[in-house]
Design goal:
Strand content: 15-25%
Strand order of the largest sheet: 12-11-8-13-16-17-19-20
Number of strands: 21
CATH architecture of the largest domain: 3-Layer(aba) Sandwich
CATH superfamily of the largest domain: CoaB-like
Radius of gyration: 24 Å
Shape: elongated
Bound molecules: flavin mononucleotide
Number of domains: 2
Protein backbone atom coordinates (compact mmCIF):
# COMPACT_ATOMS: atom_id res chain seq x y z
CA UNK A 1 0.00 0.00 0.00
CA UNK A 2 1.17 3.53 -0.81
CA UNK A 3 1.96 5.60 2.23
CA UNK A 4 1.64 9.32 2.81
CA UNK A 5 2.88 11.22 5.83
CA UNK A 6 0.85 14.40 6.18
CA UNK A 7 2.38 17.23 8.20
CA UNK A 8 -0.09 19.86 9.36
CA UNK A 9 1.15 23.18 10.71
CA UNK A 10 -0.62 25.94 12.63
CA UNK A 11 -2.53 27.94 10.03
CA UNK A 12 -6.20 28.68 9.70
CA UNK A 13 -6.37 26.21 6.77
CA UNK A 14 -5.48 23.31 9.11
CA UNK A 15 -9.12 22.19 9.03
CA UNK A 16 -8.78 21.59 5.26
CA UNK A 17 -6.13 18.96 6.00
CA UNK A 18 -8.96 16.79 7.36
CA UNK A 19 -10.46 16.65 3.88
CA UNK A 20 -7.05 15.86 2.38
CA UNK A 21 -6.78 12.83 4.70
CA UNK A 22 -10.18 11.67 3.43
CA UNK A 23 -9.24 12.13 -0.24
CA UNK A 24 -5.92 10.33 0.17
CA UNK A 25 -7.56 7.43 1.98
CA UNK A 26 -10.20 7.25 -0.73
CA UNK A 27 -7.47 6.94 -3.36
CA UNK A 28 -6.14 3.89 -1.52
CA UNK A 29 -3.26 5.32 0.54
CA UNK A 30 -2.59 4.91 4.20
CA UNK A 31 -2.00 8.22 5.96
CA UNK A 32 -0.05 9.11 9.09
CA UNK A 33 -0.55 12.64 10.39
CA UNK A 34 1.99 14.73 12.25
CA UNK A 35 0.74 17.96 13.81
CA UNK A 36 2.79 20.85 15.07
CA UNK A 37 1.84 21.99 18.55
CA UNK A 38 0.24 25.05 17.02
CA UNK A 39 -1.73 23.00 14.49
CA UNK A 40 -3.31 21.19 17.42
CA UNK A 41 -4.75 24.50 18.59
CA UNK A 42 -6.76 24.61 15.34
CA UNK A 43 -7.81 20.96 14.91
CA UNK A 44 -7.62 18.21 17.51
CA UNK A 45 -5.45 15.15 17.20
CA UNK A 46 -8.56 13.06 17.76
CA UNK A 47 -10.08 14.32 14.49
CA UNK A 48 -7.02 13.25 12.49
CA UNK A 49 -6.74 9.93 14.32
CA UNK A 50 -10.38 9.17 13.56
CA UNK A 51 -10.09 10.17 9.89
CA UNK A 52 -6.76 8.47 9.24
CA UNK A 53 -7.29 5.43 11.43
CA UNK A 54 -3.71 5.87 12.64
CA UNK A 55 -2.14 7.42 15.69
CA UNK A 56 -1.44 11.11 15.16
CA UNK A 57 1.81 12.45 16.59
CA UNK A 58 2.75 15.88 17.89
CA UNK A 59 5.57 15.37 20.35
CA UNK A 60 8.98 13.98 19.32
CA UNK A 61 9.61 12.70 22.84
CA UNK A 62 6.30 10.96 23.43
CA UNK A 63 6.90 7.21 23.67
CA UNK A 64 4.75 5.12 21.35
CA UNK A 65 3.16 1.84 22.48
CA UNK A 66 5.45 -0.16 20.18
CA UNK A 67 9.00 0.92 20.77
CA UNK A 68 10.60 2.64 17.77
CA UNK A 69 12.20 5.97 17.12
CA UNK A 70 9.03 7.36 15.67
CA UNK A 71 10.27 10.21 13.50
CA UNK A 72 12.72 7.86 11.77
CA UNK A 73 10.11 5.11 11.40
CA UNK A 74 7.60 7.50 9.84
CA UNK A 75 10.23 9.06 7.57
CA UNK A 76 11.18 5.60 6.27
CA UNK A 77 7.58 4.59 5.75
CA UNK A 78 6.63 7.61 3.64
CA UNK A 79 6.37 7.35 -0.16
CA UNK A 80 5.34 11.01 -0.23
CA UNK A 81 5.68 13.56 2.58
CA UNK A 82 2.98 16.20 2.25
CA UNK A 83 2.90 19.37 4.34
CA UNK A 84 -0.50 21.04 4.08
CA UNK A 85 -1.02 23.70 5.17
CA UNK A 86 2.59 24.84 5.47
CA UNK A 87 2.94 27.96 7.59
CA UNK A 88 5.55 30.64 6.91
CA UNK A 89 7.19 29.39 10.10
CA UNK A 90 7.43 25.74 9.10
CA UNK A 91 8.64 26.67 5.58
CA UNK A 92 11.35 28.84 7.14
CA UNK A 93 12.40 26.10 9.51
CA UNK A 94 12.65 23.41 6.83
CA UNK A 95 14.50 25.72 4.42
CA UNK A 96 17.02 26.52 7.11
CA UNK A 97 17.62 23.04 8.46
CA UNK A 98 15.81 23.51 11.76
CA UNK A 99 14.41 20.31 13.23
CA UNK A 100 12.99 21.28 16.62
CA UNK A 101 9.67 19.45 16.66
CA UNK A 102 8.18 16.17 15.43
CA UNK A 103 7.17 17.54 12.02
CA UNK A 104 10.42 19.27 11.06
CA UNK A 105 12.54 16.43 12.50
CA UNK A 106 10.67 13.84 10.44
CA UNK A 107 10.97 16.00 7.29
CA UNK A 108 14.70 16.17 7.90
CA UNK A 109 14.90 12.37 8.14
CA UNK A 110 12.76 11.64 5.09
CA UNK A 111 14.37 10.76 1.75
CA UNK A 112 11.10 10.58 -0.19
CA UNK A 113 9.57 13.34 -2.34
CA UNK A 114 8.29 16.21 -0.21
CA UNK A 115 5.37 18.40 -1.19
CA UNK A 116 4.85 21.79 0.42
CA UNK A 117 1.49 23.59 0.26
CA UNK A 118 1.94 27.11 1.61
CA UNK A 119 -1.09 28.92 3.06
CA UNK A 120 -0.91 32.30 4.71
CA UNK A 121 -1.85 35.95 4.51
CA UNK A 122 -0.79 37.58 1.19
CA UNK A 123 1.72 39.95 2.80
CA UNK A 124 3.33 37.00 4.58
CA UNK A 125 3.38 34.97 1.36
CA UNK A 126 4.87 37.81 -0.66
CA UNK A 127 7.48 38.56 1.98
CA UNK A 128 10.84 38.07 0.23
CA UNK A 129 12.03 35.87 3.10
CA UNK A 130 9.18 33.40 2.51
CA UNK A 131 9.76 33.58 -1.26
CA UNK A 132 13.49 32.97 -0.83
CA UNK A 133 12.78 30.03 1.44
CA UNK A 134 10.38 28.54 -1.11
CA UNK A 135 12.87 29.08 -3.94
CA UNK A 136 15.53 27.36 -1.87
CA UNK A 137 13.25 24.40 -1.23
CA UNK A 138 12.30 24.15 -4.91
CA UNK A 139 15.98 24.19 -5.81
CA UNK A 140 16.48 21.28 -3.40
CA UNK A 141 13.80 19.25 -5.16
CA UNK A 142 10.78 19.97 -2.96
CA UNK A 143 7.51 20.15 -4.89
CA UNK A 144 5.69 23.39 -4.06
CA UNK A 145 1.98 23.60 -4.81
CA UNK A 146 1.33 27.31 -5.03
CA UNK A 147 -1.48 28.85 -3.01
CA UNK A 148 -4.55 30.17 -4.77
CA UNK A 149 -5.82 33.74 -4.92
CA UNK A 150 -9.02 34.88 -3.22
CA UNK A 151 -10.58 36.09 0.00
CA UNK A 152 -8.48 35.08 2.99
CA UNK A 153 -9.64 34.26 6.51
CA UNK A 154 -8.10 37.52 7.76
CA UNK A 155 -10.37 39.50 5.42
CA UNK A 156 -7.63 40.42 2.92
CA UNK A 157 -7.91 39.43 -0.72
CA UNK A 158 -4.88 38.08 -2.57
CA UNK A 159 -2.62 35.09 -3.00
CA UNK A 160 -2.27 32.83 0.01
CA UNK A 161 -5.27 30.49 0.21
CA UNK A 162 -4.33 26.84 0.44
CA UNK A 163 -4.50 25.31 -3.08
CA UNK A 164 -7.69 23.34 -3.74
CA UNK A 165 -7.61 20.15 -1.65
CA UNK A 166 -8.63 18.12 -4.72
CA UNK A 167 -5.58 19.50 -6.60
CA UNK A 168 -3.32 18.66 -3.67
CA UNK A 169 -4.66 15.10 -3.43
CA UNK A 170 -4.38 14.68 -7.22
CA UNK A 171 -0.74 15.87 -7.19
CA UNK A 172 0.11 13.42 -4.43
CA UNK A 173 -1.66 10.61 -6.29
CA UNK A 174 0.38 11.42 -9.42
CA UNK A 175 3.63 11.43 -7.49
CA UNK A 176 2.74 8.09 -5.92
CA UNK A 177 1.85 6.68 -9.30
CA UNK A 178 5.27 7.76 -10.60
CA UNK A 179 7.00 6.22 -7.61
CA UNK A 180 5.01 3.08 -6.97
CA UNK A 181 3.38 2.29 -10.26
CA UNK A 182 6.05 3.43 -12.68
CA UNK A 183 6.04 0.08 -14.43
CA UNK A 184 2.33 0.39 -15.23
CA UNK A 185 1.81 1.07 -18.91
CA UNK A 186 -0.76 3.75 -19.59
CA UNK A 187 -2.87 3.91 -22.72
CA UNK A 188 -4.77 7.12 -22.00
CA UNK A 189 -3.76 8.64 -25.34
CA UNK A 190 -4.91 5.75 -27.51
CA UNK A 191 -6.99 6.93 -30.44
CA UNK A 192 -5.56 10.45 -29.99
CA UNK A 193 -3.54 12.25 -32.60
CA UNK A 194 -0.70 14.25 -31.12
CA UNK A 195 1.61 16.59 -33.01
CA UNK A 196 4.85 17.60 -31.34
CA UNK A 197 7.37 20.13 -32.61
CA UNK A 198 11.01 19.78 -31.60
CA UNK A 199 14.42 21.24 -32.18
CA UNK A 200 15.88 24.53 -33.34
CA UNK A 201 15.12 25.95 -36.77
CA UNK A 202 17.89 27.47 -38.84
CA UNK A 203 17.69 30.70 -40.80
CA UNK A 204 20.10 31.06 -43.67
CA UNK A 205 22.56 33.95 -43.84
CA UNK A 206 24.59 32.84 -46.86
CA UNK A 207 25.74 29.70 -48.67
CA UNK A 208 27.54 28.36 -45.56
CA UNK A 209 26.10 30.19 -42.53
CA UNK A 210 22.89 30.32 -40.53
CA UNK A 211 21.50 31.63 -37.23
CA UNK A 212 19.84 29.29 -34.77
CA UNK A 213 19.58 28.64 -31.00
CA UNK A 214 20.69 26.10 -28.41
CA UNK A 215 17.61 23.86 -28.42
CA UNK A 216 18.58 20.20 -28.87
CA UNK A 217 15.04 18.87 -29.39
CA UNK A 218 15.39 16.39 -26.49
CA UNK A 219 12.25 17.62 -24.71
CA UNK A 220 10.15 17.37 -27.87
CA UNK A 221 11.45 13.88 -28.69
CA UNK A 222 10.73 12.76 -25.09
CA UNK A 223 7.17 14.08 -25.45
CA UNK A 224 6.64 12.39 -28.80
CA UNK A 225 7.91 9.06 -27.44
CA UNK A 226 5.87 9.34 -24.22
CA UNK A 227 2.68 10.09 -26.19
CA UNK A 228 3.37 7.20 -28.58
CA UNK A 229 4.01 4.83 -25.64
CA UNK A 230 0.64 5.90 -24.23
CA UNK A 231 -1.14 4.95 -27.42
CA UNK A 232 -1.21 8.18 -29.46
CA UNK A 233 -0.64 8.45 -33.20
CA UNK A 234 2.26 10.88 -33.12
CA UNK A 235 3.62 13.29 -35.71
CA UNK A 236 6.95 14.90 -34.88
CA UNK A 237 7.81 18.08 -36.76
CA UNK A 238 11.55 18.08 -36.23
CA UNK A 239 14.07 20.81 -36.91
CA UNK A 240 17.63 19.52 -36.56
CA UNK A 241 17.01 17.47 -33.41
CA UNK A 242 20.25 16.06 -32.01
CA UNK A 243 19.13 12.50 -31.23
CA UNK A 244 16.01 11.75 -33.19
CA UNK A 245 13.42 9.21 -32.13
CA UNK A 246 14.05 5.50 -32.60
CA UNK A 247 10.34 4.76 -32.40
CA UNK A 248 9.36 3.68 -35.94
CA UNK A 249 5.68 4.39 -35.23
CA UNK A 250 6.30 8.12 -34.94
CA UNK A 251 5.81 9.97 -38.22
CA UNK A 252 8.65 12.46 -38.59
CA UNK A 253 8.34 15.59 -40.76
CA UNK A 254 11.80 17.17 -41.05
CA UNK A 255 11.91 20.95 -41.47
CA UNK A 256 14.70 23.49 -41.64
CA UNK A 257 13.32 27.00 -41.20
CA UNK A 258 10.58 28.52 -39.07
CA UNK A 259 8.51 29.16 -42.20
CA UNK A 260 8.76 25.46 -43.09
CA UNK A 261 7.78 24.49 -39.54
CA UNK A 262 4.87 26.93 -39.70
CA UNK A 263 3.68 25.39 -42.97
CA UNK A 264 4.00 21.81 -41.70
CA UNK A 265 2.25 22.50 -38.38
CA UNK A 266 -0.63 24.46 -39.90
CA UNK A 267 -1.08 21.83 -42.57
CA UNK A 268 -1.33 19.08 -39.93
CA UNK A 269 -3.32 21.01 -37.29
CA UNK A 270 -6.83 20.17 -38.58
CA UNK A 271 -6.03 16.42 -38.19
CA UNK A 272 -4.74 16.61 -34.61
CA UNK A 273 -6.28 16.39 -31.13
CA UNK A 274 -3.26 17.83 -29.35
CA UNK A 275 -0.53 20.16 -30.58
CA UNK A 276 2.53 20.43 -28.34
CA UNK A 277 4.99 23.13 -29.31
CA UNK A 278 8.27 22.07 -27.74
CA UNK A 279 10.50 23.41 -30.54
CA UNK A 280 12.46 26.64 -30.43
CA UNK A 281 11.77 28.15 -33.83
CA UNK A 282 13.85 31.21 -34.68
CA UNK A 283 11.72 34.32 -34.14
CA UNK A 284 13.59 36.23 -36.84
CA UNK A 285 14.99 35.48 -40.28
CA UNK A 286 17.57 37.34 -42.34
CA UNK A 287 15.80 39.72 -44.69
CA UNK A 288 18.19 39.39 -47.58
CA UNK A 289 20.12 36.12 -47.78
CA UNK A 290 23.16 35.48 -49.94
CA UNK A 291 23.60 32.49 -52.19
CA UNK A 292 27.40 32.46 -51.94
CA UNK A 293 29.71 32.78 -48.96
CA UNK A 294 29.91 36.42 -47.88
CA UNK A 295 33.45 37.80 -47.90
CA UNK A 296 32.90 41.48 -47.14
CA UNK A 297 35.01 43.09 -44.39
CA UNK A 298 31.96 44.43 -42.63
CA UNK A 299 28.51 43.06 -42.70
CA UNK A 300 25.16 44.43 -41.53
CA UNK A 301 22.24 42.02 -41.49
CA UNK A 302 18.62 43.07 -41.25
CA UNK A 303 16.18 40.65 -39.66
CA UNK A 304 12.45 40.37 -40.14
CA UNK A 305 9.89 38.60 -37.95
CA UNK A 306 9.05 34.99 -38.68
CA UNK A 307 5.42 33.84 -38.46
CA UNK A 308 4.26 33.01 -34.91
CA UNK A 309 3.34 29.31 -35.04
CA UNK A 310 1.76 29.07 -31.56
CA UNK A 311 -0.41 32.14 -32.12
CA UNK A 312 -1.54 30.84 -35.51
CA UNK A 313 -2.52 27.44 -34.04
CA UNK A 314 -4.22 29.17 -31.10
CA UNK A 315 -6.32 31.16 -33.56
CA UNK A 316 -7.56 28.24 -35.62
CA UNK A 317 -7.84 25.49 -33.02
CA UNK A 318 -11.30 24.22 -32.22
CA UNK A 319 -12.79 23.62 -28.75
CA UNK A 320 -11.94 19.93 -29.14
CA UNK A 321 -8.24 20.56 -29.77
CA UNK A 322 -5.65 21.32 -27.12
CA UNK A 323 -2.58 23.50 -27.51
CA UNK A 324 0.41 23.12 -25.19
CA UNK A 325 3.23 25.62 -25.52
CA UNK A 326 6.66 25.96 -23.95
CA UNK A 327 8.03 29.16 -22.58
CA UNK A 328 11.77 29.38 -21.97
CA UNK A 329 12.55 32.48 -19.94
CA UNK A 330 15.53 34.04 -18.23
CA UNK A 331 13.44 36.26 -15.89
CA UNK A 332 9.86 36.79 -14.56
CA UNK A 333 8.98 33.18 -15.39
CA UNK A 334 5.42 32.92 -14.07
CA UNK A 335 4.32 36.40 -15.11
CA UNK A 336 5.56 35.93 -18.68
CA UNK A 337 4.12 32.41 -18.87
CA UNK A 338 0.69 33.66 -17.78
CA UNK A 339 0.75 36.35 -20.47
CA UNK A 340 1.76 33.81 -23.10
CA UNK A 341 -0.96 31.36 -22.08
CA UNK A 342 -3.55 34.04 -22.72
CA UNK A 343 -2.10 35.73 -25.80
CA UNK A 344 -1.63 32.43 -27.66
CA UNK A 345 -4.99 30.98 -26.57
CA UNK A 346 -3.15 27.93 -25.22
CA UNK A 347 -4.56 25.33 -22.83
CA UNK A 348 -1.31 24.80 -21.00
CA UNK A 349 2.08 26.44 -20.82
CA UNK A 350 5.20 24.65 -19.68
CA UNK A 351 7.54 27.31 -18.36
CA UNK A 352 11.19 26.86 -17.58
CA UNK A 353 13.86 29.23 -16.40
CA UNK A 354 16.72 28.24 -18.68
CA UNK A 355 19.26 29.97 -16.42
CA UNK A 356 18.77 27.26 -13.73
CA UNK A 357 21.24 24.42 -13.66
CA UNK A 358 19.65 21.24 -15.03
CA UNK A 359 16.90 23.09 -16.94
CA UNK A 360 16.30 23.91 -20.58
CA UNK A 361 18.54 23.50 -23.59
CA UNK A 362 20.85 20.59 -24.38
CA UNK A 363 20.62 18.85 -20.95
CA UNK A 364 18.76 15.60 -20.23
CA UNK A 365 16.78 17.07 -17.31
CA UNK A 366 14.36 19.92 -16.97
CA UNK A 367 12.80 21.98 -14.15
CA UNK A 368 9.34 23.11 -15.17
CA UNK A 369 6.33 24.96 -13.89
CA UNK A 370 3.07 24.05 -15.58
CA UNK A 371 0.30 26.64 -15.81
CA UNK A 372 -3.14 25.71 -17.10
CA UNK A 373 -5.97 27.82 -18.48
CA UNK A 374 -8.03 26.71 -15.46
CA UNK A 375 -5.65 28.75 -13.27
CA UNK A 376 -3.63 25.90 -11.74
CA UNK A 377 0.12 26.24 -11.28
CA UNK A 378 2.32 23.20 -10.64
CA UNK A 379 5.99 23.36 -9.77
CA UNK A 380 8.26 20.38 -10.31
CA UNK A 381 11.79 19.65 -9.19
CA UNK A 382 14.59 18.72 -11.59
CA UNK A 383 13.52 15.56 -13.41
CA UNK A 384 14.64 13.59 -16.47
CA UNK A 385 12.98 14.99 -19.62
CA UNK A 386 11.10 11.73 -20.18
CA UNK A 387 9.51 12.04 -16.71
CA UNK A 388 8.67 15.68 -17.41
CA UNK A 389 7.04 14.53 -20.66
CA UNK A 390 4.83 12.03 -18.83
CA UNK A 391 3.89 14.66 -16.22
CA UNK A 392 2.87 17.08 -19.01
CA UNK A 393 0.70 14.38 -20.59
CA UNK A 394 -0.80 13.51 -17.15
CA UNK A 395 -1.66 17.14 -16.51
CA UNK A 396 -3.14 17.56 -19.96
CA UNK A 397 -5.42 14.53 -19.74
CA UNK A 398 -6.52 15.73 -16.28
CA UNK A 399 -7.21 19.21 -17.65
CA UNK A 400 -9.23 17.91 -20.57
CA UNK A 401 -11.07 15.62 -18.15
CA UNK A 402 -14.52 14.54 -19.26
CA UNK A 403 -14.28 16.09 -22.73
CA UNK A 404 -11.19 13.98 -23.40
C1 LIG B 1 -5.89 32.58 14.05
C2 LIG B 1 -4.53 32.37 13.49
C3 LIG B 1 -4.39 32.02 12.18
C4 LIG B 1 -3.12 31.85 11.61
N1 LIG B 1 -3.02 31.47 10.30
C5 LIG B 1 -1.79 31.32 9.76
C6 LIG B 1 -1.69 30.94 8.40
O1 LIG B 1 -2.67 30.72 7.69
N2 LIG B 1 -0.44 30.79 7.89
C7 LIG B 1 0.69 31.01 8.63
O2 LIG B 1 1.79 30.90 8.09
N3 LIG B 1 0.59 31.36 9.94
C8 LIG B 1 -0.61 31.51 10.51
N4 LIG B 1 -0.70 31.88 11.83
C9 LIG B 1 0.53 32.07 12.59
C10 LIG B 1 1.11 30.73 13.03
O3 LIG B 1 0.18 30.03 13.83
C11 LIG B 1 2.42 30.99 13.80
O4 LIG B 1 3.39 31.51 12.93
C12 LIG B 1 2.91 29.74 14.45
O5 LIG B 1 4.14 30.00 15.07
C13 LIG B 1 3.08 28.59 13.45
O6 LIG B 1 3.54 27.45 14.12
P1 LIG B 1 3.88 26.08 13.36
O7 LIG B 1 4.48 26.46 12.08
O8 LIG B 1 4.82 25.38 14.26
O9 LIG B 1 2.61 25.34 13.23
C14 LIG B 1 -1.96 32.04 12.41
C15 LIG B 1 -2.11 32.39 13.75
C16 LIG B 1 -3.37 32.55 14.28
C17 LIG B 1 -3.49 32.93 15.74
Amino acid sequence: MKHVVLGVSGGIAAYKACEIVGLLKKSGCSVDVILTENAERFVSRLTFETLSGNRTVVDTFERPAVYEVEHIALAKKADVFLIAPATANVIGKIANGIADDMLTTTVMAARCVKVICPAMNTAMYENPIVQQNLDKLKGLGYVVIEPAEGLLACGDTGKGRLAAVSDIAASVAKLLEKKVGCSEKKSDYSEKKVLVTAGATRETIDGVRFISNYSSGKMGVALAEAAADRGAAVTLVAAFVKDGTKNPNIKVIPVKTTSEMYGAVLNETPNQDVIIKAAAPADYRVKTTFENKIKEKELTLTFEKNPDIAAAVGKIKTAKQALVIFNAETENLIENARKKLKSKNADMVVANDVTREGAGFEVDTNIVTILTNSGSVYDYPRLPKREVADIILDRLSELLGESW
